[in-house]
């Protein structure tokens, strides 16, 4: 099998599939049914997070250290866990970041990366991949800024792939695969740009 490329990722996302690596590095493509999404318009930050947001406890940056975020996400959560983010996946997504189609939202404390998330944007669809934190609330704050940015820039679909407790707390729901594919076609046919200029404007408001 040839090495995973950014073009492979673009083709996969447009067609509703995404890769994950097995413990030996073997890549498999997935298309869950049902599919988990987070409705962008209905998200509300938890009450417990609001004091953290109001105090600007973390410095938020976009695309400052994309590979660092991926490597943070690749760290196994426990001794019994394996990571699905292989070196091949890191290389391909980093290439996609260089093309302007993959993005990271990063939380810093004392200039140290302490949490964040990354994903892929195509048209008005954002495909959330993974998040991590080494300080409490860091990934939650990064997600909050992701949502605000998606709203500002007219994104219509936030894909989170599988349902679990982590994404459920952000308002994730499950929908049938056929419904997801319809939303995907509509969103990827529209234009929305994850641009630095609009991000800066968001922070200065």
Based on DSSP secondary structure assignment, what is the total number of beta strands?
9
Order of helices and strands: HEEEHEHHEEEHEHEHH
Number of helices: 8
The level of helicity is 25-40%
Strand order of the largest sheet: 4-5-6-7-8-3-9
Question: How would you classify the helix and strand content by structural class?
Answer: alpha+beta
Per the principal axes of the C-alpha atoms, what is the gross shape? globular
Mean pLDDT: 91
Which regions contain 5 or more consecutive residues with pLDDT less than 50?
Answer: 197-205
Strand coverage percent? 15-25%
Note down, in words, how this protein is organized.
- By secondary structure, the chain is α+β, with helices and mostly antiparallel strands.
- The protein is built from 8 helices and 9 strands.
- The protein has helices spanning 6-14, 50-54, 66-74, 87-98, 138-152, 165-168, 177-188, 196-204, and strands spanning 18-21, 27-30, 35-37, 59-62, 102-109, 112-122, 125-133, 157-161, 173-175.
- It has a 7-stranded mixed sheet with strand order 4-5-6-7-8-3-9, sandwiched between helices. It has a two-stranded antiparallel ribbon with strand order 1-2.
- A hairpin with a 2-residue loop joins strand 6 and strand 7.
- Helix 1 (6-14) packs across helix 4 (87-98).
- The protein starts with 5 loop residues before the first helix and ends with a helix.
- GO terms for molecular function: leucyl-tRNA--protein transferase activity.
- Its EC number is 2.3.2.6.
- Keywords: Acyltransferase, Cytoplasm, Transferase.
- Belongs to the L/F-transferase family.
- It is found in: Cytoplasm.
